[in-house]
Amino acid sequence: MNKAKVKLKVASIFWAVLFNAMCLADGNGAVDRGLFEIWGPGLESQNIVMPARYFFIRLLNYNKESVPDKFESNFQITINGGTEQNKPCRIWSNILNRKDGSLIVRYKVYDQCSRLEISVKYQQQHVAESPYLVEGLINPDSCYCPKENIDGAIDSWKCKALPAQIRADFEPFQKIDWDVTRPKVIKQFDKPHSVSLCHYVIKDNQVYRKCYGNYVGFNMFSDSILLSLTRKAAVPDLEFFVNLGDWPLSAQHLEDKLPIFSWCGSADTNDIIMPTYELTESALENMGRVMLDMLSVQGNGEFPWNQRQSKLFWRGRDSNRHRLDLISLSRKHPELFNVSLTNFFFYRDEEDVYGPKTDHVSFFRFFDYKYQLAIDGTVAPYRTPFLLGGGSLIFKPHSKYYEYFYRDLQPNTHYVPVESNLSDLIERIQWAKANDAEAEKIARNGQEFANENLLPQHIFCYYFHLLNELSKVLESEVRVLDGMELVKQKNLSPCDCSQIKTAERDENMGKKSAKNSTLGRALIKDRFRGHHNRGTAAGDCMLHTTELDSKTKTNYQSVTEESQLDELLYKATMAGQFYETEQQDVRVLKGPAGVGLLSDAEYQKAQETHEKFRDSLKIPRRPTWTSAMSPSILDQLENESFWEWRKSLSKAQEANGFLLTPYEKNLEFWRQLWRVVERSDVVVQIVDARNPLLFRCEDLEKYVKEVSEYKLNMLLVNKADFLTPAQRQLWADYFYSVGVKVAFYSALEPAENSTTEQVAEGPQGSNINDKKELETDIKALEQAVEDEGAALTKIIAAVDALVAKSNCKEELEDFVNNDTRVLSREELIDLFHTMHKGPKVTADITTIGLVGYPNVGKSSTINSLLMAKKVSVSATPGKTKHFQTFYLDNDIILCDCPGLVMPSFVFTRADMVLNGILPIDQMRDHIPPISLVTQRIPRHVLEDMYGIMLPIPREDEEDPQRCSTAEEFLNAYAYNRGFMTAHGQPDGSRAARKVLKDYTSGKLVYCHAPPGVDQSTFTLYPERQKMKLLTRLVPPREARALQLGNVADPALSLVQTESHENLECLPIQRNHAKGVASLSIDGQSLGYSSAKPWKEFNKHKNKGKKEKARRKYAYLDQH
């Protein structure tokens, strides 16, 4: 750039800044309204009903050129509205700065408003024609008010003339007789595994459909736009078919020309083209759940053109061979490109050549670069409209595929054309860099094209035109056919769709005047008088909802996570209703001990429900496929199959009322499972020994057999060192009875010395030194062994009965021979060597697929087998992300699948926390899981483990045999560990996390019994191990927090424990020393001595002495 150009550029910047500072005002200091342009459909809200209205503001200089300056802060934009009940309308708005001297203002209306005022001020002065007053009913998008026919809608929406693409699409279909054509369409395209389409009928402005194919999840887009159109206009009776896939269907070589609506067209098909589902959804969900739309893409770019990098930026997956060529081209010219692949699906075997794949990038960051590439994927790139809207220069290769607006795009005006094989791409980029001004002009033309043709208003207009043109060529009678279902409108707002003015309505309805007002009405008005004025500012103008103070009923603020109450209030807000509360008498209710848990009756009912619907718990299957299918078709089939599976589970759960684990909802993880199953000879499910049935997926075993009858299933019970030999025997017998091969293993202790195994040892071990207590334990264990032996006899008898009925007893015994020992590493490898004897997936090599829930120890198991850390291990569930293979031996391959949470029955969320399915650090309510812990683990075990004393239930109020409540246990634990809040209260949440982590890690052991075995006899805990002091003096503050019935008082009363009966057998002596009180039992001092505050009386008995204020009012500081 020479000096003359630099001076010119500096001068232009100077005059632009000077213009903003001075020239906006005339000699009297008033802003020149003529220097502002304001336009857009948002200024006509009574006629154009969209989910989000919008309009544009542009600042010009005296040459009518945009002034690119950071002027957003100088604008004051308010949008106020009122209902016919004189209440403020709920309106949400936001402003997008396009960095080119213009703004986009979007707003969303939640109420039916009778008036609207849009005020646009610059430096506190109105500009252009501001304020804009909109009279008449302004409906939210959720109103069902089809007030005019489709021709009237086209006029009131100010739609352009019939698009050329629609004229071209209907050229082959001048007349459509569905009575003749319908059977041909169904016969041609009713191919469930490869084609998905929906047959629609609009009758009396109601939408009906019947879908064909296995994967019809994309009907959500066509359903939504049709329901939205029928809310806005009286659509004529119509019948048509919508293709739900990407590829156009109506091939030109077919004998019959079949009218099919599709998202995309091609040079060799006759499909009638609609806006793509991505563009359609961006119009329907503007300012909703969709972040990327044609307006936000213009307002979220960070840099203007002259600050963007002069490189071509692209990210995408490998859905086209030319995309791989792009990667090769970029590596030869890194100074021109920033491109990479984000996923490999179609060319996975070439990932080492064109990889590595990179992370996804926010679409808004695309426009940090000047150049973009609209290269085909499986069909036309659906991102093209958004690329045009972002203001970058588009390079578009030639393609046979097209979208509905391509016909109006002009090469070298709106984009730069490129050969389909990208042979001239380098030359085109170099031209753009050398001619930056021309490149910027083409980029701005493309953005202007998007603003004139691809915004939400234009999308709705295109659909209006499309349906209107279809109605002109239909000859057959439109009727609702058998098998069609009504597509219902959802979440409609209560709206009055009449156009009668307020005064006329009052006259017609005989509204009472103020003269006829009664005393009751006056009292009501007086009570709620504040409600009418809370949304009014000075000058009787209605406030925007974001300007309302904290006294208003609805508080608009950013919410990232909602409680149930927040969710309720949000739903009430969206429904147009308010909730009021009055503070009256307050009562504090003490919750039951088992809060958040099921009662015995509820537990039994839930068990029956689980058993009844056990067959409904399925995992997603990989759809049937052949080698002739293209990768894109297979991808679509898998996505649609997965979507249907998720819907079926959701419906079953909602209809039958059972609780499921939060199963994996990422299709990629299930794809990993499918690949592991297909390439494995033996599929081993690794389960946690403490609750094997929760982590076992029976349907996975069925799926393995569906893939190949030669594949085998096996359970590997990890963490088996938590089980005693008797417990392992019971589980081995149970799995033998159901024909499942099982092996016990411990990844942390792969070798177990059976000679040192303590037969009678419970989960916590036993170090009892007292002879009498040892004899008592032995008797209890002998009785438990007898009870378990009886249960075991029943199970064996049931197994024998099942096997006797089978014709494959020898085969069953050959494979299902469950060893109860905890196998060593060598023994487990020997088992893998010998268990599979049939045909193998890989010749002479046995592939062992390892599958299981997160955090059951798959990675630890592999590391122990390989005797090296080959797989990352973490206490957080879900460390492994991709399946991996390892050679365990010359003829054994281990195939590790990522941890999958499969759908499984569970009773409460507390169960999921204790089983490690839900993260402990993310739980919101710690009381139910701790309540479950205190129910499962005996009181004395908790006291021994943590060295605490739990309060005894008061006999006059509660069941003396009940378990400790969660609050009692947590308070005692928190005091013992010093976990206190800033207010001196025990920190129950912190204590709960510590205890729950002890439970999941196995420090606190609770093992579930197999079906048919009494849980009380299955898990045996040792008697009290630590010698517990029979008396203890508890400080008053701690005693109150622990809710103890007997508090240490000045008389040195004893706080009695559950071993109170032992006190009667021991001589208790009270020793005395000066200023010290102590206790001794059987001549042995208990070591408690303290001078204060335990003294019975003041030493000097100074009754007349003035008492210190801190002592006098100490009760105010008590818990």
Spatial gap, N to C terminus: 78 Å
Give me the CATH fold name of the domain at 612-750 and 817-896: Rossmann fold
Helix content: 25-40%
Main sheet: which strands, in order across?
Answer: 25-24-23-22-26-28-27
What is the level 1 CATH name of the domain at 612-750 and 817-896?
Alpha Beta
CATH-defined architecture of the domain at 612-750 and 817-896: 3-Layer(aba) Sandwich
Q: Number of helical runs?
A: 35
Oligomer: single chain
Percent of sequence in beta strands = 15-25%
Radius of gyration, taken over Cα atoms and rounded to an integer in Å: 38 Å
Tell me, rounded to a whole number, the average pLDDT.
76
The count of β-strands is: 33
CATH superfamily placement of the domain at 612-750 and 817-896: P-loop containing nucleotide triphosphate hydrolases
Molecular shape = globular
| Unreliable sequence segments | 1-19, 500-517, 527-564, 573-595, 751-769, 805-815, 875-879, 1045-1091, 1093-1099
